[in-house]
Structure formats: structure tokens, C-alpha cells
Amino acid sequence: MKKRILGAILVFYTTNVLAISIPNMQTFTGDKRLACEAILCLASPVLPAECSSAIAKYFSIHFKKPWKTLEARKSFLNLCPLGSSEAILSDDKDLEDWRNSLVNLTGTCYVPDLNKRYQRTILSTETIRKCSGHGEGCTTITINHYGYRINPTLDNNCKILSSHKYSNYNLKYVCSTKFYPEEDWNNGYEKKEITQEQYNSLKDEDKFKADKLTKITYTEYKNLPENKRKIDTSDRIIKYYRIDLGFYQKIYINKNCWINENKK
Predict the structure, then answer these.
(1) At what angle are helices 30-41 and 52-59 packed, to 10 degrees?
(2) Coil, strand, or helix at residue 120?
(3) Which of 90, 99, 140, 219 is deepest in the core (most CB within 10 A)?
(4) Which uninterrupted H or E stretch holds 213?
């Protein structure tokens, strides 16, 4: 039962279970009440509106010297009695450890915030050589092509909050850990080339058409009309392309990668 005590944040004013953990909490006022609310609210990966004041109060306790911050936060949390009596210390060591671990937090850990933390990496590097036609020589330009993903690693705050039985954290990363090309990431979907028949069977919002380049020989190139061909002279080797119409399906990228599952 105690595993569920601090997890019932949304109804912590009315549950009988919480009354066992923090007796007579309904009668508390001032910092004593805020301290109890902070202990309860920090146990949840969602932030009810009722928690805003307590969370703000807790993280406003800050001094230039880190040890002073830790001492002041611990003193604040100790205003809230735990256990089955009005004693400051609980006879449940796990519960006491939970309260003490909170002083090491530098911030909160909420699922919506986790799903805003992205990582970027270089997927490939392209070298383009440009030469002037006026005898001014050539220059080489290196272009990095980046990939993005939602960060699959928890920060220290999340590790602290999710590593204790008294929290309601059970965080799980449900996305692929691969990096998506920048264009796909910004669009919100990958593009998968399909046949025209497959294309016609899809809903309008799940498909699109776009030009695609097919590499061809110079002989094929010169026999095409102007609007159906393209030449690439950015490298030392000239490349010839035919402009075709491509049919694509949108494969949507899930950016809600972190979820919180109910503890069993």
C-alpha cells in the first residue's frame, strides 16, 4: 500500500491512504503544508495545478553555497511530519530516504519536458567544390547533414525521482533510438516511396507527390526535354538526372517517446 501513497497526487487532499502517510495534512497551513505538498508533488511525473505553489517554493530555496542550499531544503522538507504520528522522522526508512533524496534535485522531471529534449548528431558530410568561371580558382565547401531524435537518456533529476518505490515514476522510452534526417524531423514524417496504386489507396493526409531524381547517362540526358532533366556540376564528376514524379507515403515520427506506466 505504501508504494501507492505518494503516487495519488491528484487526490492527495482527500484519500485516506495519504492520511496515513501525512496525518492531519488537511489542517496544515503555511510552509508546513507547502513542504508536505512538495514531497507529494515531486513523486509524480505530471504536474497538477495544485502543485505549482509548493514546487515553486521548494526550488526558490537557493544559496550561493551549495551546502547551504541542501541544508535549507532539508529543513524545509522536515517541516512535514511523515509516518503514523506527528514525529518529524518516519519509522519507515525508505520513506525517510525518499524525502532526503529530494534535496539533491536541481529541477523537476515531467513527461512533457522529457519529450522536448532532443539530440542532434551528424548523419553525413557532403563536400561541394565550386569553381569560378572567371579564373578565380575553386573553393571547397563542407556541409553537415544532421539527424535528430528525442533524448533516450534520463537526466540526474529523473534518475533520482524514478529510482524510489515511493514515487509514481515508471518511465519508459517507446520510440526507436535512431536519428531522423533534419528535413523529416521538421516535417514530422519520413517519406516512403510507393507505387501509384498504393498511393491511390491512401488517405490524402497520409500521402504526397514530389519530384525525384533518377541518375542516367549523358546519352539519355541529352534526349530529354529541358523540363525533365537536371545536371549536377557541384563535384568534379558531372552527374546527369531525369526528373520523375515520385509517389510517397508519410510515415509519421513519434515525438512522444517518454511515457509513464502505472506501477504494479
Answers:
(1) 100
(2) strand
(3) 99
(4) strand 207-216
Q: How many residues does the chain have?
A: 264
d(CA 128, CA 142): 6
Q: What are the tens digits of pLDDT across the range 7-22?
A: 333 344 333 333 335 6
Q: What count of Cα atoms within 13 Å lies in the side-chain half-sphere of residue 25? A: 27
Condensed to tens digits (0 to 9), the pLDDT of residues 179-231 reads: 999 999 999 999 999 999 999 999 999 999 999 999 999 999 999 999 999 98
pTM: 0.74
Q: In this structure, what are the phi and psi dihedrals at residue 26, rounded to the nearest 5 degrees?
A: -60, -20
Packing angle between helix 66-77 and helix 30-41, nearest 10 degrees?
100
The DSSP line for 143-188 is EEEEEEEE--S--HHHHHHHSSTTS---EEE-S--PPEEHHHHHHT
Q: How far is residue 184 CA from its own chain's centroid? A: 17
Instruction: Dump pLDDT digits (tens) for 138-187.
Output: 778 888 999 999 999 999 999 999 888 778 889 999 999 999 999 999 99
- Write the single-letter amino acid at 154: L
Q: 195: which residues sit within 8 A by CB, 6+ positions away? A: 247
